[in-house]
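[step 3/7] inverse_fold.run input=structure_tokens len=195
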């Protein structure tokens, strides 16, 4: 549930229907037709951030477009992306995002202990040097005011090049926005979250 409530497809105006159609297609393609309940209920109701954006479909289109554009920037593996996402989730503590990435983390190679370490605000000892660079940069971006120091920027360039560095910084910004929205509208953790 969320503070705005869920919108059933029967209540959609034209703008909401267009947004719904885009998201439904995206979810079906992303999950090969086996979309998790946290994103799409059996009756077709959208969950998570998509549910809140159905109340402001114009914003929803931009949200989805930005997320897709950030994801398309080359330079980071799914594991490397997940480091940055988990660091951001540790900052904002969005119930929905934390539970979703407790599921996604292991799927891209994270040990449970490493996820717990990041959620506790410490860099896992198991991370390679490139992963430590991601952790430190993401941690600075979400937890400290001011410019990302050159001493944290330079390792990103060395390990990931300009594209990977752009990907990382945009990714942290995108997830920060999403988690503020999830927290503001009190989007609950999905029912299929791990215990």
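[step 3/7] decode complete -> sequence:
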């Amino acid at each position: 549930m969320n503070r705005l409530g869920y919108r059933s497809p029967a209540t959609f105006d034209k703008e909401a229907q267009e947004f719904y159609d885009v998201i439904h297609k995206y979810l079906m393609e992303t999950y090969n037709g086996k979309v998790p309940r946290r994103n799409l209920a059996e009756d077709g109701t959208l969950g998570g951030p998509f549910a809140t954006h159905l109340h402001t479909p114009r914003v929803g289109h931009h949200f989805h477009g930005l997320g897709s554009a950030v994801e398309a920037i080359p330079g980071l593996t799914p594991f490397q992306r997940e480091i940055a996402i988990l660091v951001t989730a540790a900052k904002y503590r969005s119930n929905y995002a934390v539970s979703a990435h407790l599921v996604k983390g292991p799927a891209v190679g994270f040990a449970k202990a490493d996820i717990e370490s990041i959620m506790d605000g410490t860099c896992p000892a198991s991370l390679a040097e490139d992963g430590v660079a991601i952790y430190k940069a993401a941690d600075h971006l979400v937890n400290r005011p001011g410019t990302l120091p050159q001493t944290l920027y330079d390792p990103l360039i060395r390990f990931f090049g300009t594209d990977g560095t752009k990907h990382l910084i945009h990714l942290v910004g995108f997830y920060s926005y999403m988690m503020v929205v999830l927290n503001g509208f009190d989007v609950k953790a999905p029912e299929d979250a791990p215990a």
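[step 4/7] annotate
The chain has a mean pLDDT of 90.
The two ends are 18 Å apart (CA to CA).
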